[in-house]
Hints:
This protein is an all-alpha fold. The chain is 85% helix and 0% strand.
Amino acid sequence: METNIDRLIRISLIILLITGSLIILAPFAILLLWGIIIAVAIYPVFVKTVKRLGGRKNLVSVLFTMAGLSVILIPTILVTGSGASSYKFLIESFNEGNLTIPMPRDDVKEWPIIGEKLYPVWNLAAHNLKEFINTYSDDLRQYGSWLVETLAGLGLTIVQFIVSIIIAGVLLAQAEAGKNAIHLFAKKLVGEKSEDFVILTGNTIRS
């Protein structure tokens, strides 16, 4: 016969299991949320495309996913390639002593706020690049660290978008089941007005 202690242990284990699952899933919550938002936003277009292609939902979801990934990946690859080429060119030119900085115009001094401070720095870089690097080495290191952190953050954001698009594609492929689940949840949440609630939520996301 099950005692109160046994029940307490069982409930505690269930709570621990749920808590552990939430902790594991927490980092992916924002990705799932964005995936849902993307899926809801393009769902009307998805439905129309499915009808035109004879109801092949899986095919359309794959096409939509590939299109979304292309929008993200193609510009990223082009920009990354261009940036890498420019960086390589700058390093090679500097090592060969061919890197030159154009002289600042006199009106640079008149630029608001930064003009008076920028002109001598720019002028030094144009006349003697090595001395400029030695003089402002600490500032350049800080800027380099900031640039690396910024690029890393941008890269992470791109990866998150990629994962969110893939999640959206999966959700679209299972759109009917997901729609029924949302309606069931909304019905328990707001009762008879669940249909209006779901429609309003979808329109809000798409607006």
